[in-house]
Specification:
Length: 137
Amino acid sequence: MANYPVKSEDFGEIVVGNVLQAGAGAMTARIAQRMAGISEKVPCSVVNRFCSSGLEACAIIAAKIKAGFIDTGIGAGVENMSINAMQDIVDANALSDETFDSVEGRSCLVNMGNTSENVAKQFNITREMQDQFAFES
């Protein structure tokens, strides 16, 4: 994010609109976020809508700014009907080669089960600690 007036850590949130994207668009949005050099600490969500999903994402960011929840954010869209043409079967493997060439992009392809195991190992969190936290929450 060098040479931009807004630093990565200044974003309050990212919302990406999509339709028929693999992983409900969450994976696509996170890959784009990480490949753009935006910290994984910035919350990123998607809105799945058949028409004007990118516009809806921008409206959500604008509303959050107006409400004072965040100061700045990114609203975007990844409508791509050329690879997901309103068919019954969506090719979940239709990702760009750049995704696999990018360390940050590939890191988003680790399933959440493995991700949680990696985090638990890194921070020495036992299963018992997780169960206790779940019980208390």
